[in-house]
UniProtKB/TrEMBL annotation:
This is Heparinase superfamily protein. InterPro entries: Chondroitin_lyas, Hepar_II_III_C. Residues 291-541 form the Heparinase II/III-like C-terminal domain. Coiled coil: none annotated. Its main location: other. It holds the Pfam family Hepar_II_III_C. It is found in: Cell envelope.
């Protein structure tokens, strides 16, 4: 079915929803669930908006009225993510603005007009109205019946159109129907069918190992939170919860715990961020699932964790679709509460160019051949038509520590080369050692590499090994350019050293984090190498310095002292 026909059917369904008798009041006020970020609430209160990577000042404008916004970005405002942030800020001006914008939206678009009447956007909007119903109806002069009528119309729309949503948006729509049906007077008839359907969708979208197709840890976390909140709402109302619904929660919980660093934040791969940790923590606390293992595999990621150090590696092929990243064999590392090695993150919030750059291999802490990501985008610039294949991924534990050995063939067709990465986390967690090797393995690959080397005119194949640092890490080049000292905000000191034929530089990088309005400047350690034969190998080590104690009282230090 064409996009135009789908949009027409959505519009007709929104108008037909007006023909039903609306709810006049809330039977119960739902418990708040979705959480935002106070800092983003402050930006909104100041009239600051991000438009395609540019900061736009538009005091007095509602989020859907910001000048210069592309149609897609303007439409996102109809999902009401901004309501989470204003509620998180929570002071009197923020609460007043949240109510003003909500009732302005209802007056302008509540009768089925505007771009917000798609199943995905309507589900987000209805879910947030339910989550913040107490805030939206608390002030004098705000008629709760207005919100109840608008919410019941949206529920009716989703009743008809949720099946046209894709992937996790279906579960979000069903979760919104459940919560609204339980909260709004006269809307209980929708609850039973939605409760059954959410179990079917959970069973279909969450595989036997607790993974989802996007391989995004954040997507998995938000899906888990939706399922957990829907389960809690049904249980509180004395309604049955479908067994497939409960089973999906049991499958996801241990996976989600494996994908969290020692600081509680999620690994930032394949378009995902660290998400709002409190919401995930609350959902996990209510879940009954096996405890987190010290190390394990989950959704194509491998995790090592010893002492204060956790390492998470992308050890599977990139997912199909428009959001997958060329991050194969990339890793992140945290020490206690402090991220150390990171991925740059998704640039989607800052426009198409940032989004494309964030998906490329150089934006991840791994090896990249100059000019070639390990997976490459097709002509559309969205879908990855050439995806790296992971040939092997092994984990073992011995006297030397926990070891990973991984190989991918992302450049086998272009250069005849495979990338092998070996990682070793010491038994006390105080050092992470690695070795990265580019090599032609088969006769066909060696022949292809010979052709590439000849065409390079003796210049060889240039490559770079990158380690992106969190903005709170303070790096210093030492030892005549042969090592880097790292001071963490906790006061820990780490040292980076390498061996092999490479040149070390400390280059600018960015940390793309939706909790900040603009990309944050940071640094990356880069080892530059040139392959001139059939193999090139570089070894490296991150190690805590000897004077860093085993136990640290890790307090928040916004301005950590420089290294002595």
């Amino acid at each position: 079915m064409s996009d135009g026909k789908v949009a027409l059917l959505d519009r007709l369904a929104a108008r037909r929803a007006l023909l039903h008798r609306p709810a006049r009041r809330f039977a119960t006020i739902p418990e708040p669930s979705s959480l935002g970020l106070p800092e983003r609430g402050r930006w909104l209160l100041a009239g600051s908006f991000l438009v395609e990577g540019r900061l736009v000042q538009a005091p007095g404008a509602a989020p859907w009225e910001v000048p210069g916004a592309e149609p897609g970005q303007a439409a996102e405002a109809h999902g009401f993510a901004w309501l989470d942030d204003l509620a998180a800020l929570g002071d009197r001006p923020a609460r007043a603005l949240a109510r003003d914008w909500t009732f302005r939206w209802i007056a302008r678009f509540g009768r089925g007009r505007g771009p917000g009447w798609t199943p995905a956007l309507a589900a987000r909007r209805l879910g947030r109205w339910m989550s913040h119903a107490a805030l939206l109806t608390e002030a004098q002069g705000r008629d709760p019946a207005t919100l109840a009528r608008a919410a019941s119309q949206t529920l009716r729309f989703l009743d008809r159109r949720w099946t046209t949503a894709r992937g996790p948006a279906r579960i979000e729509a069903l979760a919104a129907i459940l919560r609204a049906g339980l909260a709004l007077e006269g809307m209980e008839r929708s609850v039973g069918a939605a409760a059954t359907a959410i179990g079917r969708e959970a069973e279909a979208q969450v595989d036997a190992h607790g993974a989802i197709a996007s391989r995004s840890p954040e997507d998995l976390a938000l899906l888990f939170a939706l399922l957990a909140e829907a389960e809690a709402a049904l249980a509180a109302a004395g309604r049955p919860v479908a067994e497939p619904h409960r089973a999906a929660l049991r499958r996801i919980a241990p996976v989600l715990r494996t994908l969290r660093h020692s600081d509680g934040g999620l690994a930032r791969f394949h378009g995902g961020g660290r998400t709002v940790a409190e919401r995930v923590e609350r959902a996990l606390a209510a879940a009954t699932a096996p405890p987190l293992r010290a190390e394990g595999a989950a959704m194509g990621y491998l995790r090592l964790s010893v002492g204060r150090t956790s390492v998470i590696v992308d050890a599977a092929d990139p997912p199909a679709g428009p959001h997958g990243h060329a991050s194969t064999l990339g890793f992140e590392m945290s020490s206690g509460r402090r991220p150390v090695i990171i991925s740059c993150g998704s640039g989607r919030a800052w426009g198409a160019e940032w989004h494309r750059a964030g998906r490329a291999t150089p934006s991840h802490s791994t090896l990249a051949i100059e000019g070639f990501s390990s997976s490459r985008l097709g002509r559309s610039g969205e879908e990855m038509t050439e995806r790296a294949r992971v040939l092997s991924a092994h984990r073992q534990r011995g006297a030397a520590g926990a070891q990973l050995s991984l190989v991918h063939a992302g450049w086998a067709e272009t250069h005849g080369l495979t990338h092998r990465r070996e990682l070793l986390l010491a038994p006390d967690g105080r050092s992470l050692s690695g070795a990265d090797t580019l090599a032609a393995l088969t006769a066909a690959e060696k022949k292809r590499l010979e052709t590439v080397l000849k065409s390079a005119g003796g210049q060889g194949v240039r490559f770079a090994l990158r380690f992106h640092l969190h903005p709170d890490v303070r790096p210093t080049v030492e030892g005549g350019g042969l090592c880097v000292g790292l001071r963490l905000a906790s006061g820990e000191d780490w040292s980076f050293q390498f061996e092999g034929d490479a040149r070390l530089t400390l280059d600018p990088s960015v940390y793309l984090d939706r909790t900040h309005l603009l990309p944050r400047a940071t640094k990356q350690i880069v080892l530059h190498g040139v392959l001139v034969s059939s193999e090139a190998r570089i070894g490296w080590t991150f190690a805590k310095t000897e004077d860093t104690p085993l136990a640290i009282r890790d307090l928040d230090r916004p301005n950590p002292p420089d290294r002595p």
